[in-house]
Structure formats: C-alpha cells, structure tokens
Amino acid sequence: MNKTSTKKHAQRRELLKRGACMALLGSGTAAMSGKLQLISSAFAQSSEYAALNDYKALVCVFLYGGADSFSMFVPSDNDTYNRYAASRSGLAVDQSTLQATSGPYSFNQYLPQLHSLYQQGELALLSNVGNLISPISRTAVLNDSALIPADLFAHNHQQAQWMKGYSSLPTSVVQSGWGGRMADLLQDANVGAVLPPTFSLFGSNPWLPGEAIQPLGLNTNNGLSLLAHLDTGVSASNASRSALHDQMLSQNYTHPLKQQAAETIARAKLGSGQLASVVAANQNFATPYDDTSKLARQLRMVARLIAGRDQLSMKRQIFFVGLGGWDTHDHQTPRLNALMTELDNSLADFNSTLAELGVSNEVTTFTASDFGRTLTINGDGSDHGWGGHHMVMGGAVNGNNTFGQLPTYEIAGDDDSGDKGRVIPELSINQYGALLAEWMGVNSTDVAEVFPDLANFDFGWRDSYGLFSG
Fold it and tell me: Would you place residue 47 in the very low, low, confident or very high pLDDT band (cuts 50, 70, 90)?
C-alpha cells in the first residue's frame, strides 16, 4: 500500500475514532461488561463503501477448544484413507460409515445435513487452514529457520491470533480483530445506522473490535435490555420519564463535553429502542430450531437481526457465534459425535431460516477454531494440533467443492511439524479471511490493510479456485 493510501485511511479512522462514543447500556450479557459503543454514521467520512447498495452479512462460527476436523472430514480415496487410518489408529473413522462426495473428502455420519448442503452446492470445504505468518516447510520447522507464530498449541494465544489475523506482531500490540477492521471500512455502507455493524452472541472476543468500531454484545433470548426506567412499554411513569429525558437531551449545551454526552445518550437510547423493536418484531419463523442448543439460540438471534436489517438501516452486518467443548483430549468419539450433531442441526436450521427470509445468497457462514488436532491418538482423544479443515456455507458459495490441498496424513511425513501428526497448514488464516472480506465488498487495497501478513503469501490461488460463484 502506498503512503498516500495509508495516510488517507489513517485520517478517516481518526475521524471515526473522534466520533465514537461509549454508551453505558446493560446488554443482558457479560459480553461487553454492559457497555455499548455506538458509532453515528453522521461522523463517517464518505468513501466508496457508502455507495454499496446491496446487502451482505458474514457469520463466524467459532469452535472453541480446537475442533478435530480430521474426524469430521475424512479422505475418500483408499490410498489416502489407509495412511489416515494408520496415523489416527483408534481415532480413525470407520470408512464404511462415511458419507461420500464427489470431492476428496467424505463427511462424518454425524454431519448428514451439512453433507447434503455440500452435495447441493451450498457448502464448500477449505482444506488444511491454520495460523501462519508466512509459508513454511517441515524442513524449515525442524532446522529452526521457519518464522512460526508465537505460542502455538496454546488455546488463548491461538484464539487471539486467529481472530486478530496479525500473527507477526505480539497479540498485546494488536488491539483489533480482522472482523472489526472490516467493519471500520464497511460501516460507511450503513447510511443512517446508529448501531455498529458488528454483533456478538457469544460474549467478548478479539475478532469483532475494530480500530474505530466496537461491537455490540447481545443476549440470545431478548437481544438488548432497554435503558432502565425509560422503557415506555412498562408503565405510564416510564413514558413520562422518557419524554422528560428526551427534552433534556434535545437542549443545546454550550459546553462541548455536555453536548457530546447528550448526543451520545440520545443515540444510545435510539439504538437500543430500534434493536428492541427489531427483536420483538422477528420472533417467529416457520423453520424450527432446538432451543436447548446454545448455538441454535445464537443463530436464531442472528436471523432475527438479519430480518430487521432494513429497520436498522444496515447494508453490511458481521456476526460472531461460538460453540465450546472441542478440546477433546479424552473420550473424543462420543464427545465429538455430540458436538457434530449440534453443529449439524444448528447450521442446517440456520441455513433454512435464511432461505425462508430470502437472503441465502446474501449471507455467508464460516467455521473457525483455535487450531486443528493431532493425527496421533492421546489415550482416547487427541492433542492440540495446527492445521485443520473448515466449512463455508451460503448461497453465494461455490459449493460441492474442496479448496486447498490435502495433507499427506503421514506421521513424520512432509506435512508433519514433528512426529505427533501436527499438520503444517497450507492455507493461512489471512488467505481464508481475505476471501471472505473480498466477498463482503472490501477492495483489494483495503484487504491488504485488514490482513497485513497477507503480503507474505501468494494470493493468486483464489482466482483459479473461486470460493464464491459469480
């Protein structure tokens, strides 16, 4: 990126930061410690993103603990499967139970609906994705000449690096996530919006905060609680109190801090009211869901917010949901089967709900996790690994395809970082995220700014593969 472009974006972000405000609102969840930062579009500098007139949403499904995707998606051809089975030993999925595809992977039997979506062209797989600063080889790892992300195999560090997407710097230095950095740019598309475009249904996380935009944490049941004692639907006294409050906020204050505080609270009140209205108006869908599933409840709230996109004046929305329990050091098979069942049901129901809303082509959902797991067995489970496979779902996805190369599945083979089957990733998080950012409408120059480490990779493969159709 040239100096002029860098200066332009720095100036625009500084303007956004000056317009940012923190409203003290209870969100009904510990996500943002009860605080909501609202960005008024009136403060946003005009950019090419303000001209975006279509609607798109991105949904990150983070599988906390390190998902064993080597049991979720298993090589189909016999030679590769035999190497896989030899390496996995007691963890190898029985080949006779697998759901075949026309691609290089078969699906685990506990992912039947996702298998169907893959076959129907609504879901794609990305093979062997992981946290990288630059491409590396087994030889470079073994002779200590490789530039490797710090604290590999540690949950908290890898979650932060995965979500921040800037592993060449210490995580303490990087204050924003790549989802938030996208939102800094795409916020301009949400002309007239008083709420940020980023929503978390799974508490605070490093992915959604931007340099200017801060996310809104929501409760999966009621979204966001209204301001205490100002909810006009509760009582006549509240209605009277709210009207008086509006009069106070509408005054012109000579002191700039008082004026800014009044405008901040007014936007917070307006935003919370809009959100409550949207959530209340979009409670019922024909598509059923399992309300005992935390993931299903999160995705149902995402669908409600997508349904209210026009009322919220949003052309771009970015969501974060999560599912824990994937750290399967022991009793892996029964635990993983239950997790896959919940994931399969929740994503399939969400996909059906999006079809019901008529936005299948406008919403892309993707999986992420701390890391993959080892090919080798660890008692009756697996240990922390490195690369792993991921899913991208949506009507715009070039489905029924697998992108990226299969690993060799050999212990101490070309793709093993040692002798435990910790597979060296082929595709970086930066490449994965950049594909999603481009689909959201971020231009190539800004993609390089969102993912600074992307400069270390050959990104030309995206043109020949084409994760998204059209």
Answer: confident
Q: What is the CATH number of the domain that holds 87?
A: 3.40.720
Q: Is the pLDDT reported for residue 30 higher than 90? A: no
pLDDT confidence bin for 249, thresholds 50/70/90: low
Compute the CA torsion angle 292, 298, 302, 307 (nearest 10 deg).
20
- Give the C-alpha separation, 133 to 415, whole Å: 17
The answer, as to whether pTM is greater than 0.90, is no
Which backbone phi and psi does 323 adopt, to 5 degrees? -140, 120
Mean pLDDT of all residues in 206-210? 98
Phi, psi of 141 (to 5 degrees): -65, -45
Asked if 166 and 429 touch (Cβ cutoff 8 Å), the reply is no
DSSP string, 380-445: TB--B-S-EEEEEESTTB--S-EESPPP---TTSTTBSSSS--BPPSEEHHHHHHHHHHHHT--HH
Q: Which residues contact 130 (CB under 8 A, 6 or more apart)?
A: 371, 372, 386, 387, 388, 423, 424, 425, 427, 428, 429
In a domain, 75, yes or no: yes
Write out pLDDT tens, residues 353-388.
999 999 999 999 999 999 999 999 999 999 999 999
Alpha carbon 200 to chain centroid, angstroms:
9
Cβ–Cβ < 8 Å for 361, 396: yes
Residue 18 within a domain: yes
Domain with 16 in it: 3-465
> Which strand (E) or helix (H) includes residue 294?
helix 294-307
CB of 407 closer than 8 Å to CB of 423: yes
Is the distance from CB of 67 to CB of 373 less than 8 angstroms? yes
pLDDT at residue 273 in the model: 74
For the chain, the domain total comes to: 1
Residue at 470 is within a domain = no
Cβ atoms within 10 Å of 231's Cβ, excluding its own: 17
Note the pLDDT tens digit of each residue in 433-449: 999 999 999 999 999 99
Residue 309 tokens, joined:
């996109």
